[in-house]
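User: My advisor, Dr. K., asked me to get a structural model of this assembly before our group meeting. I'm new to this, so sorry if the format is off. These are the inputs:
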Amino acid sequence: MNAPLLDRRAILKASLVGGAALVFDAKVALAATPGAKATTLNAHIRINPDNSFVIGAQNPEIGQGIKTMLPMLIAEELDIDWAQVQIEQTIANEKVYNGQFAGGSFATPTHFLPMRRIGAAARQMLVKAAAAKWSVPEDSLTTGSGKVIHAASKRSATYASLAVDAAKVPVPDLAKVPLKTPAQYKIIGKSKIGVDTPAIVAGKPLYGIDVVQPGMVYAAVEACPAYGGTVGSFDADGVKKLPGVIAVVPINTSYDPKIGNDAIAIVATSWWVANEARKALKPVWNDAEARQYSTAGFASAAAAQIDKAPQGDLVKKGDAEKALAGAAKTVTAKYDYPFLAHATLEPQNCTALFQDGKIEFWAPTQNPAPGRALVAQMLGIPAEAITIHMTRIGGGFGRRLSNDYMAIVAQIAKGVPGKPVKMIFTRTDDLRHDVFRPAGWHSFTAGLDAQGRLVGLKDHFVTFGEGGKPGTGAGMSGEFPAALIGDVHYGVSYLKSNVPTGYLRAPTSNAMSFVFQSFLDEVALAADLDLAEFLRRTMGEGRFIEPVKGVTGEFDTRRARAVIDKVCAMAGWKGREGGNGKGRGFAFYYSHRGYFAEVVDVTVNSGGAVHVDKVWVAGDVGNQIINPINALHQVQGAVIDGIGQATAGQKIEIVNGSGNRTNFHDYPLPRITAAPAEIVVEFVPSDNPPTGLGEPALPPVIPAIANAIFAATGKRIRSLPIVPAQLV
Amino acid sequence: MTTTLSVNGQMRQVDSDPAKPLLWVLREDLNLLGTKFGCGMALCGACTVHIDGKATRSCVTPVSAAVGKKITTIEAVAATPAGKKVSEAWTALDVPQCGYCQAGQIMTATALLTDKPKPTDGEIDAAMTGNICRCATYVRIRAAIRQAAGLNEGTAA
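Assistant: The format is fine. Below is the predicted structure of the whole assembly, which you can bring to the meeting.
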């Protein structure tokens, strides 16, 4: 692993002000002499004597391209060439680096300005140093390719030659430092391949699972299959006598720290040995209560609840009951979707060394700061005693926002102090001990007036939660089109569950898009319209709709309409089209600040198998695509991820209190044969700051497929996953 | 017991249980970490290596079954003519997202092009269907194989 950019001899101290902007404190004395060693200009930039530049990539890389993109922003404003840049992953340090997590498609909107300001501030300090050195006005100087240039005297100086003087320049006010105009961009908007791509192709060790530390041992974990069950007894002696086994350590997985130990770790000289030794463990669990929960039980409880009055209100505006009673036509339907796993291809793993009351991690975490807090709590040590090195991550999708693997390996490491230990889940462990996308049930009624206009909408959402609060990832906000019509009632009821839930890529939206955009297609049909036209009419005139706190979010009908119109033009959308097993579907969804409309063509064969043939995507994520090649890749991947959720057969069932899927034969991921022949992507720029792309392209594809299947077969999909039995 | 393996052109000795899967011998005993663990049941292809040139799932191959055979891993595949073309195309098209599956993808693609230098689109999909990419880089996997094969446009399946 690379040394942290902020070493003890860092010549500038970086600190956070107001939790947002980085400032540089130049009071710390210089430690370097010119040309002798690299100069650390701030917490993100180090200038090498050869005038190459190390830029710290501060956010976790899960395949979203952030390790390339954030340094692009710094390099742009520092005004250096991309070929001069080397990139290092920084250490996790929430006191130095703001917003150091991969989630919610937040990194682009959070960091677009701050990262540029960091580069621009460093550039300004270098310019000031040159101005002082040459006794010329700052505004007579220009920069480029890592040099300051004084054209009038034909002088130039490399940044490296100015770095030590620059480090003495007072750090400028980041909020006021001048930034380039888009016309001046040389890096932003130009495609850059992933910084790690050559190393990945060469098979270099980059991931958490690849970490090797001197004297490292390995751990496998047997956790109680039923969530909430605890350790009763196990054959510690039988395991310990096996060759290669070093220790047996009961632990708590951290899903519920209050219940005591719910898992047993085996430490051995080899992970394969540790995992094989699980066969001798003979665990007995205290899990009678946990085993009562099941998918069948949840489904019957939901069915019993959904026709009753909701337990609470999520959105209640106007008088939906009255509007529906007076409607010329009403449409009703029930929808549901299952628990899903994340199934990152790199199974959950983590490496840690516990020594002298301190712990050091090599962690594939999407969210290190809460991991630090969790470990501090679980081990009873101060946060300052925890060091977290961030590794490249073999897929996140929200799974690694939960830091259970850190808590697990921390307890194991404490059980074998002085030995670095690498804990790895098997695929079965990974599918069973996930924080699942929660299942959910919806019962809708919509009303149309005589002109086919949407005049009222009701949804009873049955989800998981307790005490009137949803479980993690199990809530719902004021889903579209609540903000657009006057009479709306979204009610909610909660089921008790033992199942750990969490955030899956485009959380809540991946499910809500399916139920709302599929149901609205039914409503559009009742109005004799296609969904695209029905949405245009429902949205009405172009306007920005202000958010209503706790009810509905902001929404811009102009941005929505622009992507809807664009995708219809791209695909040659002519309204409802299909039959004889071929059909075309449309859907729109706004999530994670991105507006996306998508059209898909599907084929449904006589056996009920669905294939997505082609997809068109129009998206608005603001006025600037930062790294076009990666933006395209994120959209392509999100689309096929959605195709997988819809058609690959993904579904976790709870049996005896535990997820029952064990590997990729019973939890299938989309394979190359599921990929459409073509995914056509166009971005529709709008006058808004750039926003993230890891998530918002995914939600619309799922209802677009369901709507295309209806066009192809006349069969309405109201339950995921889509399986042949629904279509024959 | 001591086992001698031919890995990437070198004879390597390991002290291992003969039942230990080749994947874990490569990763733990030989420090060749490019070959990845994904499923342990030959379902995802992340662990694909070449044994005597044939794409093989190392997670279900006991090390004893690899004795006396030539093992090639991702770390050395670019030294083969097809592997070089595949690796270059993979980089040029920026195929990886998270990248975790890509060693297996490259090994399978290299075996395909060694066997069939000009595969049809149908043959590409058929050869690659055992390799899961959770990020779904499939559009570029197809394109990179076509580029490595010198097929600029798709051929009929």
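One thing worth pointing out at the meeting: Chain B touches chain A through 56 residues (CB under 8 Å).

User: Perfect, thanks a lot.
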